[in-house]
Specification:
two-stranded antiparallel sheet, two-stranded antiparallel ribbon, 5 helices, alpha+beta
Length: 151
């Protein structure tokens, strides 16, 4: 079946009708414009998890310094806090201070989004992150979640 061009209700140009909004045909461009205006999607309010308060206390107690490089971290930024064990796989460790390392934003991004080798190539001192991660995993699976792991 061959599509026919029709006149768009909004711009009155001859084009293929992309969607019917309120029973009136719109071209692709006008349909997207109308959809943007009449979007009924509302963002969900964020649930308070307690992470921000924990991050602030870690930021102060660890002297605002990267635990990998020792560099001073200027302004408070949530990207400077890396969960060693993921929040999804280990939900009970989400607010465990031992599971959170204060580090440079670049280190956090490499830790989350690249390979171990790439991170260690750029920051050899980041081996501490993997040592802590192994110790946390060990304590998690041996039922000793409250104790700070030994490294």
């Amino acid at each position: 079946m061959e599509k026919k061009k029709k006149v768009c209700f909004k711009c009155e140009q001859l084009s293929y009708i992309w969607s019917n909004i309120n029973g009136k045909g719109h071209c692709q461009k006008c349909a997207y414009e109308e959809k943007g205006k009449k979007s009924t999607l509302k963002s969900k309010p964020y649930k308070a998890t307690g992470e921000k308060e924990l991050f602030e206390s870690i930021y102060e107690s660890r002297n605002k310094r990267c635990e990998v490089t020792g560099q001073y971290i200027g302004a408070f930024d949530v990207w400077c806090f890396a969960h060693l064990l993921s929040k999804k796989a280990y939900p009970s460790y989400r607010l465990n201070p031992a599971n959170i390392i204060l580090c440079l934003r670049e280190i956090h991004l490499l830790y989350d989004n690249s390979s171990r080798e790439k991170l260690l190539e750029a920051y050899p001192q980041a081996i501490i992150m993997f040592e802590k991660k192994d110790a946390l995993r060990y304590s998690y699976y041996n039922g000793d979640e409250t104790k700070e792991p030994d490294i």
